[in-house]
């Protein structure tokens, strides 16, 4: 008789636990019921003062400077992050596959190479990087938290894994995902639920939720997630960190474990891989290094283009010509789900702060309310082409149940016909063309009374909008994904930029008296009217920043400009008496 999912999960969890050295287990003095566990690495006594500095005070760019000059040894850096990742696992349940032993051995090899040649092996020499469970690493499972896929170790590496290794990176762990990777709360029956380390009552997001929690704990400072509807940006938002979803073709994606039939992504929405990290410059670093590598030789979908060549593709040169401002379009709602009062106030605050920078930043309001529902309908239709039949077949092999967040959202459906697929792709093509007008003043989506402008000739560089219509919600309460999935449908690169914390003053405001726009809007309102709002205080508030397709360089360079421009909000946050 085949194993049940429970017996497989038990064996898998035992295997994972056995890969954490006994000396790295948390002492019993750590309160297992506390909500905020971000300080546990410091309190545990497991990390030395030097290891606390390496993991807590550096970003990846700074570590690489030390590793590339010989001031830091990879074995010290990697060991420190392995230890901190082990701690993060014990309080947030963020890891799936653990290969600390292999990582430390590779770090020693890299140190020996450097000692002999006085040169790094590549631009990521000795840097520990964590990866989402869907990436295949030879000798380890890529089970996606599905019992039927456990104990089937990969026989080859994903394209990006091969590339990172060739560039000198050290891979040391894989991170947790939700069942089917189509949920926005990272729970599966094999590994369990990933918890938000800043407040374990709130969701850590999904589907790269394990990656988000690990980076928030600084068990990693640079990780790789994937995103087909918000799976990088949602965890970045939930954990108050940085995440970039590139356009498809910018970062190698080949060789992923997808859980669906081979080739199905070519008929649906193409997923992308991108960085989740602790700084804008680290996200830029990873994208730049990949662009300047031989990535196109490893994945036929990758656009062969160096970082310098991407600069020349800007539709507007305003980022690079000092006499011109960075022009930012503000989108306040997708027209399908109205943001709750604190999100409305926050976006207003961001727009006002950016407007105060005078000639350096120009802010224009964009109204795309007529497009939101259209994009959602097309997205939902396209991602359900296969009907989730392959996932349900896998679950039925071991009697595995569906996860809570998915229980009311996912069911087995008939596969769509060729004509239905063709019709959906035609809808998408029409929206791709229509939405190009958003970027240009003449397109009809700008709300402006600027009589000084030469009407119709201006374009926005980037768009700022909410990452969600609600604050970071309690576990299994994430509502609409349209604020992120819209940009997967359009294949526009998008990022999450943390700005400040949710404060007590953000608790003001009530939902208007008008009827809800639809069922999603009604559920969204309940995150304000049927929740103890105090749970939001101290959670992160971030914006989503979007650029035109394949304009990743423009996106990350804009992020750096915007982060600096929004510093007054962060400083006000730090000085607030209501800060937790």
UniProtKB/TrEMBL annotation:
Its EC number is 3.5.1.4. One of its GO terms (molecular function) is amidase activity. Residues 76-555 form the Amidase domain. The keyword Hydrolase applies. Pfam families: Amidase. Keywords: Hydrolase. InterPro entries: Amidase_CS (IPR020556), Amidase_dom (IPR023631), AS_sf (IPR036928). Coiled coil: none annotated. It comes from the Eukaryota. Substrate binds at residues 181, 207, 228-231. It catalyses: a monocarboxylic acid amide + H2O = a monocarboxylate + NH4(+). The active site is at 132 (charge relay system), 207 (charge relay system), 231 (acyl-ester intermediate). PANTHER family: AMIDASE, PUTATIVE (AFU_ORTHOLOGUE AFUA_1G14530)-RELATED (PTHR46072:SF6), AMIDASE-RELATED-RELATED (PTHR46072). Belongs to the amidase family. This is amidase.
């Amino acid at each position: 008789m085949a194993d049940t999912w429970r017996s497989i999960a038990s064996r898998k969890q035992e295997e994972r636990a056995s890969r954490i050295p006994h000396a790295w287990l948390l002492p019993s003095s750590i309160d297992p019921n506390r909500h905020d566990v971000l300080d546990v690495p410091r309190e545990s006594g497991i990390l030395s003062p030097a290891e606390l500095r390496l993991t807590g005070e550096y970003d990846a760019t700074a570590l690489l400077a030390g590793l590339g000059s010989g001031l830091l040894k990879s074995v010290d850096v990697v060991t420190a992050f392995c230890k901190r990742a082990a701690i993060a696992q014990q309080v947030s349940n963020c890891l799936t596959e653990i290969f600390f032993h292999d990582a430390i051995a590779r770090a020693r090899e890299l140190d020996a190479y450097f000692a002999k040649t006085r040169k790094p092996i590549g631009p990521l020499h000795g840097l520990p990087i964590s990866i989402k469970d869907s990436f295949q690493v030879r000798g380890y499972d890529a089970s996606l938290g599905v019992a039927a896929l456990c104990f089937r170790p990969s026989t080859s590496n994903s394209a990006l894994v091969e590339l990172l290794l060739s560039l000198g990176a050290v891979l040391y762990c894989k991170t947790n995902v939700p069942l089917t990777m189509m949920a926005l709360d990272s729970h599966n029956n094999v590994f369990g639920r990933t918890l938000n380390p800043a407040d374990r009552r709130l969701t850590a997001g999904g589907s790269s939720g394990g990656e988000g929690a690990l980076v928030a704990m600084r068990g990693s400072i640079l990780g790789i997630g994937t995103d087909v509807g918000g799976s990088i940006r949602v965890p970045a938002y939930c954990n108050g960190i940085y995440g970039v979803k590139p356009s498809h073709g910018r970062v190698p994606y080949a060789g992923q474990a997808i859980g669906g039939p081979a080739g199905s992504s070519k008929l649906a929405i193409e997923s992308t891989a991108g960085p989740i990290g602790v700084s804008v410059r680290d996200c830029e670093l990873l994208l730049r290094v990949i662009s300047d590598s031989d990535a196109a030789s490893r994945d036929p979908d990758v656009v062969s283009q160096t970082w310098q060549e991407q600069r020349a593709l800007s539709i507007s040169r305003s980022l690079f010509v000092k006499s011109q401002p960075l022009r930012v379009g503000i989108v306040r709602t997708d027209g399908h789900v109205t943001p709750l009062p604190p999100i409305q106030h926050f976006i207003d605050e961001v727009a006002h702060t950016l407007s105060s920078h005078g000639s350096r930043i120009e802010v224009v309001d964009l109204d795309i309310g007529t497009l939101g529902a259209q994009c959602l309908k097309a997205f939902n239709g396209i991602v359900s082409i296969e009907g989730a039949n392959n996932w349900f077949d896998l679950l039925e092999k071991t009697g595995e149940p569906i996860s809570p967040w998915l229980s009311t959202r996912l069911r087995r459906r008939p596969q769509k016909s060729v004509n239905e697929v063709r019709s959906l792709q035609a809808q998408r093509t029409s929206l791709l063309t229509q939405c190009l007008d958003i970027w240009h003043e003449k397109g009809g989506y700008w709300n402006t009374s600027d009589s000084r402008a030469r009407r119709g000739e201006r374009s926005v560089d980037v768009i700022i909008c909410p990452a969600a219509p609600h604050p970071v919600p309690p576990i299994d309460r994430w509502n609409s994904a349209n604020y992120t999935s819209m940009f997967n449908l359009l294949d526009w690169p998008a990022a999450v930029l943390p700005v400040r914390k949710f404060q007590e003053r953000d608790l003001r405001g009530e939902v208007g008296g008008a009827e809800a726009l639809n069922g999603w809007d009604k559920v969204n309102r309940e995150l304000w009217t049927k929740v103890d709002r105090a749970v939001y205080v101290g959670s992160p508030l971030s914006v989503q920043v979007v650029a035109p397709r394949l304009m990743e360089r423009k996106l990350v360079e804009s992020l750096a400009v915007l982060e600096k421009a929004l510093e007054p909000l962060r400083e006000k946050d730090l000085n607030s008496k209501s800060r937790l």
